[in-house]
Amino acid sequence: MKKRSHFETLLTTALLSLLLMFVTSCNKKEPPTAPNSLSAVAYDDHIRLSWNRVPYADYYRISVVFLMKDSNNQFSRPYNVFLGETTSTNYIDLYPFEGMNRYIIQAVNEFGSSSYSEVSCYYPEITPRVYLYPNPATDGATVCFADESIPYCHFTVNSYQGQEVLDWNFSGNLYIDTSQFDEGIYLIHLYPNNNEVVKRFVVTHSPIE
Length: 209
What we know:
The chain has one helix spanning 2-28; strands at residues 39-42, 47-50, 59-69, 75-86, 90-93, 99-109, 112-113, 117-123, 130-133, 140-145, 153-159, 164-170, 174-177, 184-191, 197-203. The protein contains one helix and 15 strands. By secondary structure, it is mostly beta strands. The relative contact order is 0.15.
């Protein structure tokens, strides 16, 4: 009787262990839940995002929704731009769009991605005011200053990965031919009156619906 009781105990323990392993395995074989407790804080030169860690998330995907500007420099409709990925629970957006930035964050693992979590943050307009439109650009974009007293300006255009695409001087309005640019995010660095102004814009060659 004692041997049988001992055997039954071992069998029960083994079965419970297998059941626990099965339940744990099933939980891991699912996409993670959506990030929560999101916050976004604007500083002088960036916006900082943070959120709670999500169980079983391998990394987080960050996008931003901004208001497009048409060829007349008028806001039209929202446009979604992929910013990057991180394994951390915070992200620094060094070059926010002027105005309201609506961020979308997803938790991702090998079995899929979570539903979207959103957080918004207002980033004030830069001084001096610089207009760039349309944004996103397809074949080209126009850059001009609200302050007409600025006689000329040096500028550079870099890809989001840091590769320099253009380096030039201009006066008045500037037209940038983007027809040969790869699709993606670009940064234009302008230097009016020895002050640096950085604007982010998007190039896409796909039809914008």
